[in-house]
């Protein structure tokens, strides 16, 4: 997954935000290493996302959610200077899809925002979820909350919207930077994972349906 392109793109002065890391020696760190090794070995992504025998589904999902957050964050970070209040006054995915922001704090009703504002709130919200010990426990033996997969579905649905916006409104920038293959691989990995475990509703996937059919089937 890495190469000269990644160094060129991701070693910018501004790192988009800190990565959530797994503590060495923990079960999740080992799972993360195993998932990375599968990708680096060029294993078919459809197989790479499958739950390894004997492993806990929640642990496997947690590792991937954190990894997808880090990757999608970086992808958005590479085009963020071209995603402005002027260029993207609405958080959309083409003329048919507009995304409105809602949370438990300031935006209690779905609110139309510019894409960069929406992205900021989205990334802050996901980061808060994955750094919350009660939602994503890191201590060995601490059980996941009962609503863990429900929270994960919301996180992944929102992260998917980043792909929608980037592919539909900023793909020329991705291509110009030579990062098309990397972004496509990240997308395929994400898509196969959410389909394997039924973590995103089909209607959410609709905006990229044609592209996904060409790329993933």
UniProtKB/TrEMBL annotation:
<dbReference type="InterPro" id="IPR036703">
    <property type="entry name" value="MOB_kinase_act_sf"/>
</dbReference>
<keyword id="KW-0862">Zinc</keyword>
<keyword id="KW-0479">Metal-binding</keyword>
<feature type="binding site">
    <location>
        <position position="83"/>
    </location>
    <ligand>
        <name>Zn(2+)</name>
    </ligand>
</feature>
<keyword id="KW-0418">Kinase</keyword>
<dbReference type="InterPro" id="IPR005301">
    <property type="entry name" value="MOB_kinase_act_fam"/>
</dbReference>
<dbReference type="Pfam" id="PF03637">
    <property type="entry name" value="Mob1_phocein"/>
</dbReference>
<feature type="binding site">
    <location>
        <position position="170"/>
    </location>
    <ligand>
        <name>Zn(2+)</name>
    </ligand>
</feature>
<feature type="binding site">
    <location>
        <position position="88"/>
    </location>
    <ligand>
        <name>Zn(2+)</name>
    </ligand>
</feature>
<dbReference type="GO" id="GO:0016301">
    <property type="term" value="F:kinase activity"/>
</dbReference>
<feature type="binding site">
    <location>
        <position position="165"/>
    </location>
    <ligand>
        <name>Zn(2+)</name>
    </ligand>
</feature>
<keyword id="KW-0808">Transferase</keyword>
<comment type="similarity">
    <text>Belongs to the MOB1/phocein family.</text>
</comment>
<protein>
    <submittedName>
        <fullName>MOB kinase activator 3A</fullName>
    </submittedName>
</protein>
